[in-house]
């Protein structure tokens, strides 16, 4: 396990199933039983129709880059030490968009493009927490 010194999420009753699915390397997102939309980030009610009938549902972990940026500086030491890196808004095949990092690609605008197919990478940063990142596929 690579030493990780960045911020960590604090799972709560709403988000715990998401973090547990990542730890199991089998991502699940909430799906609204009323309108069918997949939801990210986890929350108590559907942002589209306000239904609270949300069902944890396995998703593919595949998607495309919807937008990205490449920070070269950051005020937080943990992020600054890794700069430059790719921050990407990934649109999953199921429609939800996740903000994450791209890995296994140069942090260079010439090597990343909108529409690039990507897949999830499970980054086990601690015994309890696995972060979702994405790589080209
Ligand atoms: Zn809904």
Structure description:
This protein is mainly beta. It has one domain (16-136). Helix content is 9%, strand content 35%. The chain has two helices and eight strands, in the order H-E-E-E-E-H-E-E-E-E. The chain has helices spanning 16-23, 77-80, and strands spanning 28-32, 38-39, 54-58, 62-69, 86-92, 97-102, 117-124, 130-136. The chain has a five-stranded antiparallel sheet. It is globular. The model has no long low-confidence stretch (mean pLDDT 96). Residues 32, 34-35, 37, 46, 48-49, 51 line the site of zinc ion. The site of zinc ion has 8 residues, from loops.
Keywords:
five-stranded antiparallel β-sheet; globular; mainly beta; three-stranded antiparallel β-sheet; 137 residues; single chain; binds zinc ion
Percentage of residues in DSSP E strands: 35-45%
Bound ligands, each once: zinc ion
Q: Report helical residue fraction.
A: under 10%
Major pleated sheet: 5 strands, antiparallel
Anisotropy-based shape: globular
The domain count comes to 1
| Distance linking N and C termini | 23 Å
Mean pLDDT: 96
| Structural classification | mainly beta
Figure out the total of helices: 2
Q: What's the alpha carbon Rg, rounded to whole Å? A: 15 Å
Model regions low in confidence, pLDDT < 50 over at least 5 residues = none
Element-level helix/strand string:
HEEEEHEEEE
Give the strand order of the largest sheet, numbering strands 1, 2, ... along the chain.
6-5-4-7-8
β-strand number: 8
